[in-house]
Amino acid sequence: MKACTNQVCPGNPEAVCVVDLCSSTCKIKFIDASGQNVMCTDDKCQVFSFNEQDTCSDKCPASNVKICPESVCELAMKQNCSKKHCAVCVLDPCTCQPSFIDVRTRKNLTNVQCNYLSESICELKRCDILSNIEKAKFSGIDLTSAETALPECDDHGKFNPKQCQGQSCQCVDQFGRSTGETSAGSCREIDEIVILYVTLTYNANYSEYKSNDKLKVLQDMIWKKLQDAGIDPRIIKKVGEPYPGSVKVDVTFQNNADSYNKDMALITNTIKQMANTNGLDLTIDGQTVNLVNITEQVQTQSQVADNGNKIEDEDELSQTEKIIIGVVVGVVGLLIIAVIVFCLCYRRKQQKEAMDDSFETIRESKRSSESSLVSETNKVYQEDDNIVKESPMPFGKPAIVFSNQTCNPTEDFVKVKL
């Protein structure tokens, strides 16, 4: 066929060009000696693997050989993409520069995808199986025909409630574990985890750490450990302030739709794995602080619904916050007592003043009465230029005095007898 004339498969010059007779455009493709389709690329370097140096020397002239050690990928995975379980390292055959692709989609991965636990447990299990198949190919082993069941994931990457392998089916939970239910029909919807509560206990002296201002250092190191493990800070709701009991720290994780971590079940497994492999041990001032105990508790969607669709807020107050609140409450209490005492004193004072005013009124009234009586018995009035006075006489008869000058009250009023 003319369509294959002078056609060469880039990167695989030994491949044979054939025409697809079923294609209306005479589309061509390349096959190898066994009739398998061959992928042709524009790469200038042909990729092949070998077990011995002599095999490589026979196929490539020494001057053109570029050997990419396997350790390049191993180191790159540890340093740059260890959190992405579905990642496969690929080396550029011309430069030996590593890059990472998703084993499921064959697409290149970004730094963000490499730095966070962005898969679900279902996807992770699928990736582990597919990665093993890919690794086996480098050793010349084909595992594609092996009867290995790939977990079935939904559109969100979570386990389908019903998992089947051939004619055998079972109902599973959010971890992919069998629930023991009959799978003759449909399985119940999986009750997904939305909140994870963890209490970490370290073998440290609380009083000593507090006096040396190391509690905040310990708290910050736990934050960093969790983020280094690929946990998005947006789902770390709280890393509580350390409290006594050796040294204990409460950590709360809560599902967040905007987070790179989409499966709280995977976060739960990750925390357990970190605890079992000393991944949560800390080093402070050159001393190792070991995690000696961990307790976990989860809250599922149904439990949240039973609480009136309210996610329980476990942001317990820190010791400092409790002290501050205690002081504020104490001050407010003292102010209230002071106000009450002031009001009582003021009221008592008002009552006393009212009583004193009452007594003074009575005295004034008495004085006024006495004064009125005197004025009635000792009247003073003016007639022309003379002052006329009436003064009681010893016998009850008034004495009338005519004078051009004011009377002296001490003088004897009897001047003229009528």
TrEMBL record:
Name of the protein described by the UniProt record: Thyroglobulin type-1 domain-containing protein
Membrane-crossing segments per the record: 323-346
Highest taxon listed in the record's lineage: Eukaryota
Organism: Arion vulgaris
Pfam families in alphabetical order: Thyroglobulin_1 (PF00086), TM_ErbB1 (PF21314)
Gene3D superfamilies cross-referenced by the UniProt entry: Thyroglobulin type-1 (4.10.800.10)
Keywords: ATP-binding, Disulfide bond, Membrane, Nucleotide-binding, Phosphoprotein, Transmembrane, Transmembrane helix
Residue intervals of the Thyroglobulin type-1 domain: 119-187
InterPro entries: Thyroglobulin_1, Thyroglobulin_1_sf, TM_ErbB1
